[in-house]
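Notes from the 1:1 (GR / supervisor)

We went over the backlog. Supervisor wanted to see one worked example end to end before approving the batch request, so GR pasted a single chain during the call. The sequence is below; no edits were made to it. Supervisor asked that the structure be written out right there so they could see what the output format looks like.
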Amino acid sequence: FTGTWCSQCPAGAATLDYLVGRAYKDQAYALAFHNEDEYAIPAEREFNSLFSLGGYPSYLTDMRDSGLLNEGTCGLSIDKALYEVPVHCGAAVSSECDAQGNVKVTARIFSERTEEYRIAAYVIEDNIRGNQLLGTGTTQEDYNHRHVVRKMLTSTVKGDSIGIVAAGQEGGDTFTFQVEDGWKLEDLSVAVLAINGEGHVDNMAICAADGGSMDYEYVNN
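Structure output shown during the call:
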């Protein structure tokens, strides 16, 4: 959770990029929700009302743990999610974009136990160049904003229900959206979050918006 007005957020972003790009590469993924700036969407306020985020930059891991974003606290939170919390489903996603910029996203969940699931889905744009307040108090006009959530495809951050998925069975949903003016299709991806009956993210998948796919990569630690 970040903002272009937040002078401490570039340091938080650098920490997050290290965690998801190196320390937990292909194990953890980032979604950046902006607050009260040109990239902000209503989902950020909904998260704030549900989890009472304490400041910026902050993190929320699997809709379970939250805190101010630094390497120590966020890294420990990712460790907990990966190695202490059992996973009971796999998530998969594919996405296709037509010549008119209409995108269809297919999300799937395969469960090892009978569980009621919800799916949350987001459109993410990477490498957006724009203004950002720095720790020096100056503004950088060509700052590289990464992992920016552009749109929520579900009705709430809690996800849309797909009902009960029986053990050993598959459930899913489809979503559509239009590539908006100013978005760069080559930098767009879609993320789907499988949310369990306790309201926590059990697993997730992410892929490019234009012809991307990510199949089940289910490993129960």
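Supervisor's comment: The first strand starts at residue 58 and ends at 61.
Batch request approved.
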